[in-house]
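Try it yourself: sequence plus alpha-D-glucopyranose, in.
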Amino acid sequence: MEQFDFRRMSIYQIWVRSFCDGNGDGIGDLYGVYEKLDYIAALGVDAIWFSPIYPSPNADFGYDVADYRDVHPDYGDLAQFRRVLDRAHTLGLKVLLDLVVNHTSDQHPWFLESRKGRDNPYSDYYIWRDPILRRGGGHRLPNNWSSQFAGPAWAWDESRGQYYLHLFSKNQPDLNMDNPRVREEVKNIMRFWLDMGVDGFREDVITYISKREGLPNGLPLLPVVNGMPHYKDGPNILRYLGEFRAVAKEYGAVQIGEAPMTGVKRALRYVAGEDRVLDMLIQFQPMMADCFFTEYLHHPFSLRKLKRAFSRWQYGLAGKAWNALYLENHDHPRVVSRYGSARWPAASAKALAAAYLFQQGCPFVYQGQEIGMTNIRLPSIEHYLDVASKNLYHMFHKNEPEEKRMRRIHLSSRDSARTPMQWSGGKNAGFTDAAEPWFFINDNYTELNVAAQENDPDSVLNFYRRALALRRESETLLFGDYREYLRRSGKLYVYARSWRGERILVVCSFSDAPLRWRLPKGFSDGDAELLLGSDPEGGALGALRPREAQVWRWKAGCAG
Ligand code: GLC
Ligand code: CA
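Structure, out:
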C-alpha cells in the first residue's frame, strides 16, 4: 500500500497514565483520551503517538511490555482502544503506537519460559551468557557493559544458572534479535496492530537491537554508556530493520525510530532515500543544550549549543531525509524549566515553540508542552518513581551532600515530564475525579492550565494553535530550504525558510531584556509582513520584547 505523505504531519505525544482519567480511579486512561480527542484535533496536529499502552508491571512505566497484543487494564481494553482509533481517524488524526522490541518485561511469558532452562522453545529469545570463572574462585560478569539506568547490564538468574543482558532496568531483559523467531514475533506484533488500523510506529531504542557478535568489552570511559559502541547501530541492524520495513510497506505505515546518541552521518543510513528502513529518526542533540549526554550531567544552558544542534540536523538532512523536531518527551524534564526564563515562563514557552516548530521536519508536541508546563521539585528521592532517577541517585555521587544530590534529581528526573496534565484550576487540576491522582500534580496548576489558556488569545496554548496552523498551511514552512542567521548570537535564534521565491524569517529572543536586531543582508523591511508574533505588545520589525518570537514573510516576487 502507498504511504501517506508523513512529511506534513505534526504529532502529539500522549503518555496516557498522566493525560486524563476517564473512569475516576486516579490513573489516566483511554476513556480520558477519548474525551480529549477533540481538544487534540483542535490543536492542529495530524497524529497521536501513544507511549506504551500495553500490559506492563510498570518497572519502567510501560516500556517493560508483558503482552504486546493487549491494553493495560489501567488504561482500558482493546475495545476501548478501537473506539479511540476510530474516533481519531474520523477527526483526521493518524495513530502511532510505541513498538518496544529491544527488550520485554521480565514478566513476559517468553521470559518466564526462557529462564526455565536451555532447551525450551523460548530458550534463545533472550541474551543469556555463562559467568566467566575466575582462576582464584568465584566468577565475573560476562562483560563490562553498563545499563543505561546505571549499574551493570547483566543480572543473574538463579533458575537458569546464567546471566541475562539488560541494557535498561533488570526488569527489561534484552531480546535476542539474532534469533529469526524473535524477528518473526516482531513482524506479527506489527501486523496485529496494523491490521487493526494503526498508522505506524515510534520504535523504542530501535538502533540497539543488533548486538556485536561475542559481546566484547567496552572502553570503561563513561559508566552509563559503557559498551554502547557494541550494541548501537550493530552489525545486522539494517538487515533486521529491512525485514520490519517490508511489513510496514504492506500497510503504508510510517516508522519513526528512536536513536539515542546518533549523529547525522549515521542517521542518513537509516532514513535517506526511497529504500530507507525508517522514515524519521528521533535524535537527542537539541535536548542537550544544558547537559553532557544526560540531564544528570548538567551545565548552564547554552543557546549556541542548541542552535548548533538545530542547524547541524537541518543542513545535514536537507534534500536527503526528513527531520523529527523535538524539545520534549516523557524522558526529559520540561523545556521551559531548562531553556526558558523563570521570569518570563509563558513568553519563553512561545519563543521555544517558534524556535523548533518552523524548522524542516515533523514537529512533536508532548502533552502539557502546549501550555508550557514546568518541572516539579519533590522533597526527597522517596517521592520519585522513575527507575532511572532512583538508580542514579543511589549509585552515583554518594559522597555529595543530600542537597546537591537532590539538585541533580530536580534538574534531570523524567518524573518532571510525567506529572498529571493540568486541565483546569479545579480539583486535581481537572485530571481526575478520584480523591487523589496516581502521582503528584505540579502546584502551579491553579494558574497554569488548559481552561485558563483556552480563552486567552495570547496564551501559550493559542500560540501553539496558531503556529501549528501556520505550518500546516505553508508550503514554505513545510518544504522550504533552511538557513540560519546571526549564528554567533548568544541571545537570538534566527532562521529563514525559502521556497519558490517566498521567504519566511523566524526570530526568537532568548533574552530577558528587550533587544534590537537588524534584518540579515538580502531582506528589506519595506515588504515584510508579520505572519505571527508571540507578544501582543511586540511585533515591531527590528525590536524584540523579552523572549519574544516573530515570524516574517516576504512573498514571492518581493524585492526583498
Ligand atoms: C526509551 C524510552 C524510555 C525507556 C527506554 C527503555 O528511551 O523512551 O522511556 O525507559 O527507551 O525502553
Ligand atoms: Ca482511570
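One thing you can check immediately is this: DSSP finds 15 helices and 22 strands in the chain.
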